[in-house]
UniProtKB/TrEMBL annotation:
Phylogenetic lineage: Bacteria, Pseudomonadati, Pseudomonadota, Betaproteobacteria, Burkholderiales
Gene3D superfamilies reported in the protein's UniProt record: Isopropylmalate Dehydrogenase
First-tier enzyme category under EC: transferase
InterPro entries noted in UniProt: P_Ac_Bu_trans (IPR012147), Phos_Acetyltrans/Butyryltrans (IPR050500), PTA_PTB (IPR002505)
Keywords tagged on the record: Acyltransferase, Transferase
Family indicated by similarity: Belongs to the phosphate acetyltransferase and butyryltransferase family.
The protein's name in its UniProt record: Phosphate acetyltransferase
One annotated GO molecular function: phosphate acetyltransferase activity
Signal peptide: none
């Protein structure tokens, strides 16, 4: 069933509707060996978002289908003995052009990403691989992209350049009308004792010099004055980004993970997860994800793949 227009997550409704207008994305679903991961793929297929190929131990996949009361008669299955073999097979299919994206099943993220990031035979590009959450927060006027909360633990300034550019490319793929990037820290002033403020200032100057393109950047900004116009006004921050940011770049994985999960579990937000900087999009879902978040992750991948095919962005392909 399509998400209801009266649901408290209208940004996902619009995103899924836009993706449904595209041809189904060919997706290798890696090791969907439990009911939750299998249902996520089949629900996306039922909406026409993806055309899945299931990769993993056939017996476990079929057992998961019985548990979910699902019919796999029209779904191709590639038999692989275990999760590592399934990840390797999915990456090989992507390299041969047989699928347009990968989707995490019931294996651990590091098992899938180990095959993706392998220097020989993996899906690396010239870009640093990074992760984005596309978050739909009840009552917030626009979706928020948060990066990086899942892959890069303590990125260097050089790595943050690609993390920022990947997030900007994603925003363009999602047809955001204006991309406003806040480089987050604990404070909005540059402080030599807080390295993330120095990185933020450097990234903004790099954008001024054309080393980062496609968006307005400002930073350092604290979380309050990045997204709340009144907080920015009280602190006297005048910028096209402060109070209106729709892309949040965090200083570290710890900060990003806690921010995303706080919004999810305290603020009722949905979080769609996607990996960029790879040959094809990689859809990362969690067992705790809601069905709309899983559907939205597939929708994000579909729109990202389209932008990559059309050479509008460089974050995939």
């Amino acid at each position: 069933m399509a998400p209801s227009s009266s649901a408290p997550h209208p940004h996902y409704d619009r995103l899924i509707a836009a993706a449904r207008a595209l041809p189904p994305l060919r997706v290798a679903v890696v090791h969907p060996a439990n009911a939750v991961s299998l249902e996520a793929a089949l629900a996306s297929a039922a909406l026409g978002l993806i055309a899945p190929t299931l990769i993993g131990p056939r017996a476990k996949i079929e057992a998961a289908a019985r548990e979910a009361n699902a019919d796999l008669s029209n779904i191709p299955i590639v038999d692989a003995p275990h999760s590592h073999a399934a990840a390797d097979a999915a990456v090989a299919m992507a390299l041969r052009g047989e699928v347009d994206a990968l989707m995490k099943g019931s294996l651990h993220t590091d098992e899938l990403m180990g095959a993706v990031v392998r220097r020989e035979g993996g899906l690396r590009t010239s870009r640093r691989i990074s992760h984005c959450f596309v978050m739909d927060i009840p009552g917030h006027a626009q979706p928020l992209i948060i990066s990086d909360a899942a892959i890069n633990i303590a990125p260097t300034l050089e790595e943050k350049v690609d993390i920022v550019q990947n997030a900007i490319d994603l925003a363009h793929a999602l047809l955001m009308p204006a991309v406003r990037v806040a480089i987050l820290s604990a404070t909005e002033t540059v402080n030599t004792k807080v390295p993330s403020t120095l990185d933020a200032a450097a990234l903004c100057k790099m954008a001024d010099r054309g080393q980062i393109t496609g968006a307005q950047l400002d930073g350092p900004l604290a979380m309050d004055n990045a997204i709340d116009a009144e907080a920015a006004r009280i602190k006297g921050i005048v910028s096209p980004v402060a109070g209106r940011a729709n892309v949040l770049i965090v200083p570290s994985l710890d900060a990003g993970n806690m921010l995303a999960k706080s919004l999810t579990f305290l603020g009722g937000a949905y979080a769609a997860g996607i990996v960029l900087g790879t040959r094809v999009p990689v859809i990362l879902t969690s067992r705790a994800d809601s069905e709309p978040a899983r559907l939205a992750s597939c929708a994000v991948a579909s729109m990202l793949a389209k932008a990559g095919r059309e050479r509008l962005i460089k974050a995939v392909g």
